[in-house]
């Protein structure tokens, strides 16, 4: 992916760029909002990382201006303002996701990749939203709420169904525990105990047990990912 | 502090502007009255003169110049003080009769009114003084000329008096206006001065100071609003100070540990594997610090109550169901039965994320401290007030420690054998305060009973109305 990082803290931007390059992405870095806007509007990036508070043109207004020109490149806001309401402001101004400092790099990477893929898959696939999700030998029917793997029906609780749906929509990507909490429970906070792991292990029991290869993978220090062996990322 | 003087207050300026406008309109009104009076007096004089001229001309028409001459003489004799003025001359301009010896200089053609000065010895004075007179002059058929006039000195005096009275009145009005303005602005300043003095003291650092709110006018309202603002600022400051204290208290230890570990490892000749271990351990420490930090910030934000914009109607039963759903697998794994007894009508007005987090934290604690085979029950109820109660069959908390358990970083387990930052219940307490709710820790016999009692949400229609009014 081609990523533009707009962050005024040069150290932070440097580490971010290094980490993203090591993860196989192409990174440009600028340190103020004006330059960021020029670059973002001029080149075709897959995703932008924008700090909320930037010199010359702050992040919110930069993204507002960019959106006003019709540019729809996904934006991940990174900010020291972690307030729930700040998050709402960021999303309203045209941001697609919001990450509060301090954050784990794995969290940033996972969210960026989720946004980048979304852009790649955003092209209309013809005729309304899809009602059946397929990945490898796994089929999830959103209407009849049935799940099959290799033709064998699997019985899931409503929440397990939702969890699998989110994993399938982001198949191949890393989903962090925070991202799963957001998308499955709509929680914007992390519970004190790590409850997601238990949910995943339950889902694994039903999805992976007794089949030739596992689909749900634990990504150390980051989260989980739905991956087929022949489609290793 | 900058003192405002009465002369430069807005009240005074407003009074002056009003006074100016009022004087202008009063002056124009009086001017109109004055002019009308002057005209009226002039017209009266002229009518009197014209009547007399008409009568004298009748005498002339019927009796000729002789009759006119005796009529004029008779009339003039009756007016030694020249209040009425008569003069009759023949064609050559020689005096025939009247109380004036000759035509005043520059007296114009006949048939018109004109004014001139006459010398009058009035009021027993020796020397004659000049009075203004108005007269009509008529040229007779036979070539003679007749002048009939009136001394208008009294009229002029009256007009002068009127003018003086008007000017005096206006002057009094202006003076009274200025004095009134000064008094009014002085009064306003006094009211404001009290507020200013209190604000100055507060600015000097005494945040507990409040402005007196006696009275009941708009100044009282201002004072009340300022007081409410101060209350909020004070609360924010206290909460900020608390956060700083807490950070100093609990973040220093792990930071020191982290630093020593790095320092000690760097002192030797670390192998690549040792370096990797060090970094992994440091990362873990950093993560824990971030977690603590985030928890503290969440508490501070909840305490500051900055998020009212995001408030909505929430059903506590729905929220509790989600939490049960989230914790059920964990409870099952630990051999604990997690149950929900959902009541109807447990609806509140609040911040969804924060209330959910509060319920999750209480449930988290209950599941954490309940031994295998235990039961954790969440009960929601709408009556008498919306509430969530979480009971467990764990060790419970002795009554004397229950208040302490709500404090930050307090962990009642001295070995700290269970994971946690000691901030879970503090957040619940902060969320409770933000929602004006009550957090109570009680005895479940055995076990702990934690309940959150909220205020009921206003009826849905009322909320909609308020929204409509706001929109």
UniProtKB/TrEMBL annotation, chain A:
The lineage of its organism: Bacteria, Pseudomonadati, Pseudomonadota, Alphaproteobacteria, Geminicoccales. Transmembrane segments: none annotated. This is Response regulator transcription factor. The modification 4-aspartylphosphate is found at residue 51. Residues 130-228 bind DNA. Keywords: DNA-binding, Phosphoprotein. It comes from Benzoatithermus flavus. PANTHER family: REGULATOR OF RPOS, TWO-COMPONENT RESPONSE REGULATOR. Residues 130-228 form the OmpR/PhoB-type domain. Residues 2-116 form the Response regulatory domain.
UniProtKB/TrEMBL annotation, chain B:
Signal peptide: none annotated. Residues 246-458 form the Histidine kinase domain. PANTHER family: HISTIDINE KINASE, SENSOR HISTIDINE KINASE YKOH. Coiled coil: none annotated. It comes from the Bacteria. Its EC number is 2.7.13.3. It comes from Benzoatithermus flavus. Residues 186-238 form the HAMP domain. This is histidine kinase. Keywords: ATP-binding, Kinase, Membrane, Nucleotide-binding, Phosphoprotein, Transferase, Transmembrane, Transmembrane helix, Two-component regulatory system.
């Amino acid at each position: 992916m081609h990523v533009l990082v707009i962050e005024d803290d040069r150290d932070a931007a440097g580490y971010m760029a290094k980490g993203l390059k090591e993860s196989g992405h192409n990174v440009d870095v600028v340190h103020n909002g004006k330059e960021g806007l020029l670059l973002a509007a001029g080149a075709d990036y897959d995703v932008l990382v924008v700090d909320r508070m930037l010199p010359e043109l702050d992040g919110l207004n930069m993204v507002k201006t960019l959106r006003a020109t019709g540019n729809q490149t996904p934006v991940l806001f990174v900010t020291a303002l972690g307030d729930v309401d700040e998050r709402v402001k960021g999303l309203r101004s045209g941001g697609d996701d919001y990450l509060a400092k301090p954050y784990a790099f794995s969290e940033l990477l996972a969210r960026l990749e989720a946004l980048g893929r979304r852009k790649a898959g955003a092209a209309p696939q013809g005729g309304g939203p899809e009602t059946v999700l397929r990945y490898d030998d796994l089929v999830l029917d959103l209407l009849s709420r049935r799940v099959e793997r290799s033709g064998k029906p699997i019985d899931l609780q409503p929440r397990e169904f939702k969890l699998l749906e989110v994993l399938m929509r982001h198949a191949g990507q890393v989903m962090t525990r925070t991202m799963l909490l957001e998308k499955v429970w709509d929680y914007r906070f992390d519970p004190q105990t790590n409850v997601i792991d238990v949910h995943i292990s339950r889902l694994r029991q039903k999805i992976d047990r007794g089949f030739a290869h596992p689909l749900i993978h634990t990504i150390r220090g980051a989260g989980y990912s739905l991956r087929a062996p022949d489609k290793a990322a | 502090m900058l003192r405002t003087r009465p002369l430069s207050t807005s009240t005074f300026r407003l009074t002056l502007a009003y006074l100016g406008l009022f004087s202008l309109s009063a002056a124009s009104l009086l001017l109109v009255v004055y002019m009308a009076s002057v005209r009226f007096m002039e017209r009266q004089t002229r009518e009197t003169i014209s009547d007399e001229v008409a009568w004298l001309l009748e005498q002339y028409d019927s009796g000729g110049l002789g009759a006119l001459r005796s009529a004029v003489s008779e009339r003039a004799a009756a007016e030694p003080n020249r209040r009425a003025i008569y003069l009759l001359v023949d064609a050559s301009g020689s005096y025939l009769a009247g109380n004036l010896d000759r035509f005043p200089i520059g007296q114009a053609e006949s048939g018109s009114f004109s004014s001139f000065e006459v010398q009058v010895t009035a009021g027993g004075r020796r020397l004659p003084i000049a009075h203004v007179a108005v007269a009509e002059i008529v040229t007779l058929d036979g070539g003679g000329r007749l002048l009939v006039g009136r001394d208008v000195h009294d009229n002029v005096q009256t007009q002068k008096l009127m003018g003086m009275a008007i000017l005096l009145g206006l002057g009094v009005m202006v003076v009274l206006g200025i004095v009134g303005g000064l008094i009014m602005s002085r009064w306003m300043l006094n009211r404001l001065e009290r507020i200013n003095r209190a604000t100055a003291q507060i600015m000097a650092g005494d945040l507990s100071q409040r402005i007196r709110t006696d009275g009941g006018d708009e100044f009282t309202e201002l004072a009340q609003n300022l007081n409410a603002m101060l209350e909020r600022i004070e609360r924010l400051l206290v909460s900020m100070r608390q956060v700083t204290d807490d950070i100093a208290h609990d973040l220093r230890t792990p930071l020191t540990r982290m630093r020593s570990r790095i320092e000690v490892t760097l002192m030797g000749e670390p192998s690549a594997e040792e370096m990797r271990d060090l970094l992994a351990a440091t990362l873990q420490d950093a993560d824990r610090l971030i977690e603590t930090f985030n928890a503290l910030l969440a508490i501070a934000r909840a305490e500051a109550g900055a998020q009212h914009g995001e408030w909505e109607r929430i059903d506590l039963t729905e929220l509790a169901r989600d939490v049960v759903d989230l914790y059920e697998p964990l409870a099952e794994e630990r051999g604990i039965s997690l149950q929900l007894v959902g009541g109807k009508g447990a609806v509140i007005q609040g911040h969804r994320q924060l209330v959910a987090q509060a319920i999750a934290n209480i449930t988290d604690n209950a599941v954490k401290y309940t031994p295998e085979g235990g039961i954790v029950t969440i009960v929601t109820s709408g009556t008498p007030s919306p509430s969530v109660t979480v009971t467990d069959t764990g060790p419970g908390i002795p009554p004397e420690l229950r208040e302490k358990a709500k404090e930050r970083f307090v962990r009642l387990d001295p070995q700290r054998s269970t994971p946690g930052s000691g901030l879970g219940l503090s957040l619940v307490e902060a969320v409770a305060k933000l929602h004006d709710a009550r957090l109570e820790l009680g005895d479940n016999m055995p076990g702990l009973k934690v309940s959150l009692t909220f205020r009921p949400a206003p009826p849905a229609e009322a909320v909609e109305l308020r929204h409509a009014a706001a929109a």
